[in-house]
Amino acid sequence: MTKQVSYNGSRGHYSGNATVERSDGYYLKPRNNWVNHSPGGFEWGYGGSGPSQLSLAILADTLEDRIGNKGSIKALALHNYQSFKWDVVSRFNRSKFAISQDVVWRWYEDNGQTPEYPDDYD
């Protein structure tokens, strides 16, 4: 059975205090080593570089938990995170958000695409 995980984002009084946590206490890895859109951290609620980094992180984390080593997590996440950003992350409320892995996984099942050449992402 898949554990129930959600991602919760909030910010302090200033935009620079944005934080994103997993509900099970693990930190969400930004995956800057894959693509470094936003060295300053995560953002959401619009279509910029911070939301791109958050989209990649959430999608990769969900894929890692759901399919593990059964596929190329990196290739799948890199191929799909921009669409996930525009469909989901750019629409989050700017002050805070919560989204479950179940919702992310449903988005991926409905919208995700497998890259034609997955080795191009390694």
Short description:
The chain is α+β, with helices and mostly antiparallel strands.
What is the alpha-carbon Rg in Å? 14 Å
Number of E-type strands: 3
Task: Write out the strand line-up for the largest beta sheet, numbering strands in chain order.
Answer: 2-1-3
> What is the helix tally?
3
* % residues in beta strands: 5-15%
Return the domain count: 1
Question: SSE order, as H and E?
Answer: EEHHEH
Topology:
Blueprint: E1 6-10, E2 19-22, H1 49-67, H2 73-87, E3 96-100, H3 101-111
Antiparallel strand pairs: 1-2, 1-3
Helix pairs in contact: 1-2, 1-3
What do these coordinates show?
The protein has 122 residues and is α+β, with helices and mostly antiparallel strands. Helix content is 37%, strand content 11%. Strand 1 (6-10) and strand 2 form a beta hairpin. The mean pLDDT is 87.
Keywords:
3 strands, 3-stranded antiparallel β-sheet, 11% strand, alpha+beta, 122 residues
